[in-house]
Amino acid sequence: MDANTEAIVRLAWTRRLGLADDAMNVPGERLYAISTDAVSFISIWGRHVMAGPEWARQRAVSVADDELTTHAGLLALTADRGGHGLGPAVLAYADVDTAVRDVADDKPLISNDHADVRRLESLCPPDDVNEAGLSARESVFVLLDDDAAPVAAAGFDEWNAIVAHMAVLTAPNHRHLGAGATIAAIATSEALDAGLVPGWRSHIDNKGSRRLAASLGYEEVGTQTTVLLAS
């Protein structure tokens, strides 16, 4: 990955976490950021950041980075505060030199209507819908069939006008047929044309999502492990 792209991604994370712009420039000791409703441990390019309440920071001082990268490690840290859910995810990014932007269908039928996203979500398992969170994305691209029915969708949110946080969802009866790759390539291309770095986050056990990202030129560069806290 281009060194400039790496620097841009680090900048996006520091701003999202409320850190100084140069906080992640040099690998070194663990950084801490404030978060009240969740505890996260982010590792990218040898930089480690823990985000959470002050009590979590104090508990984590004596815990190794490798342990905090695991779901079990964060659950142990937060069990008495209601820590639950989410778990470990892989972070991947693409740039203009690595992204696959070509699609097999040179005239795909595309909708940008969130109503079509919701129609697609109604066809998919709830766990897949929740992981993608597509209906909440700012920009969406829905691949329609000849009958104008949704078969796959991709979309992204902008992080500080720097990174496009991507998501993809495919109808069960259209999986492994190229629909997801087509719409993800289109969304990736749109993000790049908007001057954004496309970013992809997959649950560590979601091999299908990780394979799709790799096929589109996304490079895995780190992890994010998160547990939610009781309200």
From TrEMBL:
Annotated N-acetyltransferase domain residues: 98-231
One Pfam entry name: GNAT_acetyltran
Entry's Gene Ontology molecular function annotations: acyltransferase activity, transferring groups other than amino-acyl groups
SUPFAM superfamilies linked to this entry: Acyl-CoA N-acyltransferases (Nat) (SSF55729)
Name recorded for this polypeptide: N-acetyltransferase domain-containing protein
